[in-house]
Amino acid sequence: MIKELSSKKLCKRIGRYVMIKTPIEVADLAFVFGTRDGVEEFADEIDRYWKRGFFPRIVIAGGSTQGNPNPESDVLREKLIDRGVDAGCVICERNSTNTGENVQLSLPLIKQHIDFDRVRSIIAVGKISSSRRYLMTLERYWPGPKKMILPINYFGVPENRWFEDPGFRSRVIAEWNKIPCYLAMGFLKEIDPRSLVPIDCRGPIV
């Protein structure tokens, strides 16, 4: 467990591994990992990319979590509809409580509503602090399509200064510690590093 961070080199290593980016191209659908945090920021970015034609369908995964009976997917869906996204373009998965279930429980719904075999590309949408794990989860349970990531930063500081915000720092370090464990347990599958654009994380961690 990393308790204290002081090395600029370590800062870059953690940031480049945990927080990743890919080029964003037009895809067959957006796959949104549910959230209770940054919902407005999520809705703004999804709405912006949908209206620009980056994806025709949106899958939102997430059930009742943190004691809230309203599924994460429904909360975000309503935010998107309020912004003008066509409700018919949104598929909600309402029972998952973790990232693996987000994908596993969404697959049958996608097969019901979309020509599954024609889904060749996905834009994953999720917290920037978990961006690598999202792609690794998709690679584990849905290995075929090309995968891109639209990371949402709702923390109020740029990603290369993640160590300055306590909440941001806590989430990044948690990912740094859990990814190797999850990978060893078979919950994740490593992704091709050639598809990634590392975030340049400058400055010391204090």
Question: What is the topological layout?
Answer:
Blueprint: H1 8-18, E1 20-21, E2 29-33, H2 39-51, E3 58-61, H3 72-82, E4 90-93, H4 99-113, E5 121-127, H5 131-141, E6 146-152, H6 166-184, E7 197-198
Parallel strand pairs: 2-3, 2-5, 3-4, 5-6
Antiparallel strand pairs: 1-7
Overview of the structural elements:
This protein has one domain: Rossmann fold. The chain has helices spanning 8-18, 39-51, 72-82, 99-113, 131-141, 166-184; strands at 20-21, 29-33, 58-61, 90-93, 121-127, 146-152, 197-198. With 206 residues, it is of the alpha/beta class. The strands form 2 sheets. The protein has a 5-stranded parallel beta sheet, sandwiched between helices.
Tags for this entry?
6 helices, 206 residues, globular, single chain, disordered C terminus, Rossmann fold, alpha/beta, 5-stranded parallel β-sheet, two-stranded antiparallel sheet, disordered N terminus
